[in-house]
Amino acid sequence: MSITVDRLASLIQRELASIVNQEVKDKSFGYINLTEVKVSKDQTFATIYYTILSDDPSVLERAKKSIDDSKATIRMELAKKIKNIRRIPELIFKFDEALAYGNHIDKILKTLK
To answer: How far, in Å, CA of 24 to CA of 74, rounded?
Structure first.
């Protein structure tokens, strides 16, 4: 039985939402919100886009380091929850800059008024 790429991406996002915030040890930057998951066509890689509520570069770097340190544990926990696929994709976490960019544009528009 084969699972489609879109369905797998949705399943991974749903399951990772709780796993990521439980497994990341450093809680100083708050809640990690997963915005999107893209799975490669051969289902070997999953790119997970995340945001946090801070724009401070040092906080963003700490969050990235914490997520990267917990990546193996997160993947193992994901494998325990998703049983209907043969191989769990390699997880690649990337910061989603769309929210920060939107806030930047919003500030520019407010100064123009």
So the answer is: 8
CA 71/CA 4 separation, integer angstroms: 24
In order of their start, the domains of the chain are 5-112 (3.30.300.20)
Cβ(47)–Cβ(90) below 8 Å: no
Model confidence, pTM = 0.83
Task: Report the C-alpha gap between 48 and 40 in whole angstroms.
Answer: 11
Q: Taking a C-beta distance cutoff of 8 angstroms, is the pair 3, 84 a contact?
A: yes
Please write the tens of the pLDDT for every residue from 4-28.
Answer: 889 999 999 999 988 988 888 777 7
Q: Which residues contact 20 (CB under 8 A, 6 or more apart)?
A: 32, 34, 50, 67, 70, 74
